[in-house]
Amino acid sequence: MVASNFLLPILALCLTMRLQGTISADPLSHICSPTSTNYTTHPPLDHALSSLLRTLSAKTAITGFATASSPDRKYHGLGLCRADVTRYDCKVCMEDATAEIRHLCPNKEEAIVWFDYCLVHYSNKSFFGKIDEKNKIYMWNTLNVSAPHLFNRYLGELMYQFSSQASLSLSFFATGEIQLSEVGDKTTIYGLAQCSYDLSSGDCKACLDEVIGELPTRCSGKQGGRVLTGSCNIRYEVYPFYRT
């Protein structure tokens, strides 16, 4: 996989899985870099970051994805909305995310925040077109399935199918479902996979394959799970959660 130049340490948080998000919801999670800039003594940097986040919010709300750099190129940012949400929901999510990231990570040189409908990532180093191998969050439902081995096998089949579909689609996005016919309760797994558009098709698949491969150890036998990174994300549930 492509090496990352990010300064952030790998952070894997084990969180209780949230129910389907709504606009203006709380962020799912965030990561702040350990290094800070005193904007009181460097007001141009504060202005540059504020300008970048405003531009990023406006551009992403229109297209669902955007990258941007501040006029002085001191900061670089990426915004991504889930491909199945409306333009309005994308706009609201980006407004919330660009405001919340300054609140959650004040004076930080790099930060990323995930909401259910969008993510925002900025850095004082350019990261476009590179797989984010360091910013990673794991989440899962606390409830267990009745037949974990069978469930995990079907889940793997579904998610690896998404990896191929998403990486070859124009939207870098895939959703679908699969029914566990051998299970008495006829459980259906619903899944989603998405990559950021700055990746190549090959890097999109590599990113998804890596996080899907972590599901058996991170979310084994759980009724729902999610892996969030700065470059790709996956989610599965035993109930519908995406829009068709």
Automatic annotation (TrEMBL):
Domain of life where this protein originates: Eukaryota
Gene Ontology CC: one annotated term: extracellular region
Pfam families for this protein: Stress-antifung
Keywords, in A-Z order: Repeat, Secreted, Signal
PROSITE patterns: GNK2
Signal peptide from the UniProt entry: 1-25
Subcellular location: Secreted
Main location: secreted
Domain Gnk2-homologous: 27-127, 133-241
PANTHER family: CYSTEINE-RICH REPEAT SECRETORY PROTEIN 38 (PTHR32411:SF43), CYSTEINE-RICH REPEAT SECRETORY PROTEIN 38-RELATED (PTHR32411)
Family membership: Belongs to the cysteine-rich repeat secretory protein family.
Listed name of the protein: Gnk2-homologous domain-containing protein
Species whose genome carries this gene: Amborella trichopoda
Lineage, broadest ranks: Eukaryota, Viridiplantae, Streptophyta, Embryophyta, Tracheophyta
